[in-house]
Amino acid sequence: xxxxxxxxxxxxxxxxxxxxxxxxxxxxxxxxxxxxxxxxxxxxxxxxxxxxxxxxxxxxxxxxxxxxxxxxxxxxxxxxxxxxxxxxxxxxxxxxxxxxxxxxxxxxxxxxxxxxxxxxxxxxxxxxxxxxxxxxxxxxxxxxx
Length: 145
Fold this sequence. Notes:
Helix content is 9%, strand content 50%.
């Protein structure tokens, strides 16, 4: 499920030339809701109202994160990812020339990846390791440099 601040989140906003901010999320009820709140709280640095905000989401570890974000080529961004629950996940960010891969414990802490000279489309994947459960929050924001 995607919710955006404009009618067509795939097209750049005319005033900024950058893609419109978007968010995606799972339902907030039950144990997953509490884990989701914990994962999102670890990334609570930029809100959807901040001009630096680009995109964010909240997914179950079981479903994983599989997004291709539209960015402004050449700009710098920061990707934050947090997992809350049990076990661990593997984060892969498809950057050139070499992808970034990181192992994350589902302990509710955040890890950040700086993306310099961004591509137009940035693929981000988070896969749960065997036996992992919980929620994964992610957020992309501009760094201004």
